[in-house]
Amino acid sequence: MKRFLPVLILSLFIFACSKEESVQHDVVGAWENVMRPSMGTSDAIDLTEYQIVTQIIFSESASYSLDRFVQDPETHEVIGYLDRHIGNFSIEGNMVSLQYDWYSTIENDQIQVVAVDDLELLHAEQNRRRSYSFENGKLILGCDYNENCVAVSHKRVKL
Q1: CB within 8 A of 6, min separation 6: which ones?
Q2: Helix, strand, or coil (residue 153)
Q3: Rounded to whole angstroms, how far apart are CA atoms 152 and 141?
Q4: CATH code for the domain in which residue 143 is found
Q5: Residue pair 139/156 in contact by the 8 Å Cβ criterion
Q6: pLDDT at position 9, please?
Q7: Is 13 within a domain?
Q8: Who's near 77: CB < 8 A, 6+ residues apart?
Q9: CA-to-CA distance for 121 and 84, rounded, in angstroms?
Q10: Given a cut of 90, is residue 145 above it in pLDDT?
Q11: Nearest in space to 51 (alpha carbons), one of 65, 68, 66, 67
Q12: Would you say residue 125 lies in a domain?
């Protein structure tokens, strides 16, 4: 029995260390914010005829992605993409830290609506902190302590 106990402890230690760490938090999942622009055009598209969807996915493996795309409000067809973030996140208190690469396409100082494969890497290793809270089942994302912006609500969605 004395010989078996060290082997058992070592086995448990190895198993515990080999498990991939996962995030167990309420932010894990897919979230969307849908905005109907009141004005504006981009790349010969009248955006007032469409809706802009921001889709955020926080995974249990602490990876993070954000897609912002133009969508037909009636058919839900994706017309094109505005930008994409791909990276990781961590949570501390009521702040979520985002580390990501930012993909978009800008011409004449305006973000363009393009196919997802036409997005270009604009800025690598972006780091942002955003406050977050929950209200009526929605994820409310705010800003860093030093930023002045409007908090935006996102509803949970199934993909």
Answers
A1: none
A2: strand
A3: 5
A4: 2.40.128
A5: yes
A6: 43
A7: no
A8: 71
A9: 9
A10: no
A11: 68
A12: yes
Contact 53, 69 (CB under 8 A): yes
* Structural domain contains residue 134: yes
Residue 9, domain member (yes or no): no
Residue 153 belongs to domain spanning: 21-157
Evaluate whether 80 touches 53 at the Cβ level (below 8 Å): no
Strand partners of residue 141: 132, 152
Task: Fill in the DSSP letter of residue 105.
Answer: -
Q: CB of 64 within 8 A of CB of 88? A: yes
Number of independent structural domains in the chain: 1
Instruction: Map tokens 């996102």 to a residue.
Output: 154
For 46-88, how does the pLDDT look when each residue is reduced to its tens digit (9 = 90+)? 677 889 999 999 999 999 999 999 999 999 999 999 999 999 9
pLDDT, tens digit (0-9, with 9 covering 90-100), for 111-132? 788 999 999 998 888 899 999 9
